[in-house]
Design a protein that fits this description.
This protein is mainly α. The chain folds into 2 domains: 55 residues; 208 residues, MetI-like (MetI-like fold), CATH 1.10.3720. It has 16 helices and no strands. The longest helix is centred in the C-terminal third of the chain and has 33 residues.
Length: 334
Amino acid sequence: MRFVKTYWLEMLMVIPLFAYITGFTLLPILTNVKESFIDQRFGRRYDILVSKIADIKYDVEHAPDNEEKGAYEKERAETALALERLQHSPYASFSLSNYRKLFTDRSFIKAIFNTLAITLMGLSLQLVVAMSIALLLTQPFHGKGFFRTIVLTPLGIPTIVSATIMTYIFDTAGYLNEVLYKLGLLGEVPIDWAQGGWLSICMVVFADTWKVLPLMVLLFIAGLEAIPQSVHEATQIDGSPPLYKFFTVTLPLMKPYITIALILRAIDAFRIFELPLILTGTATTPLISTFTYSEYTRQNYNLSAASGTILTGIILIFVFTYLYVVERERGTNA
């Protein structure tokens, strides 16, 4: 009680945040996990019957005469009996059928492959490009502030707008096909970048890299500027070549920043949604996120919940890895 009396104001201020996290994060995640273990046959039938009972209840309350009301009452009793039988059916209990169905579904396996491919290719490309830009922007030159502003611009553009911009580039009548045609690298038939396969994967990787590159550039600039000036002076005295200096001095000192940047980007890359949905759709190049959305729109709610649970589990692995790395670095620096 003494703790409560001392910190009552702090606890009162935390309550709204706690309620928000509980109501809009924890409960939806736990509900989604619960739904993922309900057999799809039971879940869909259950939703139909419950909705039907609610509709019949409304009809009973607004029936114009007793005869029609009696017919509705009879229909409600039959529906309630069907619901009771459903609740005692063999597939009404805890089930792994949704997960078994997912891992035997070619579309979901393809979604996992596409998600991993986009994540690995994107991280590799973003690491190289972001490090190169960060190295340039930490050098003293006129107009450095202006170029830093230009590099950070994509970070402020909404993802949907970014995806729309990319459609002007990668559309069959887009700028890229036009440039390739002018250079003589393309025939009369334009390239359909959204046809699926590696073309679509590369398109999404390019669009995602353009959108999120500023975040990695910022982290790398912070890391490069945190390296003591005495270290650079020592390498200059030794007369080390720039490339040798980068791989033996700069890169090892940048390791904590690179690790954190890659983990943060991996979390973001696995949940990528708007870009592939707008650029490629859900049919040719499914990802785990777009597959989950596709199943939900088809009213396969339990299957969608299982797919979403798998995606949540993958993201949580990276979140805990990030927390572990941060704590380890904090303990090392202490």
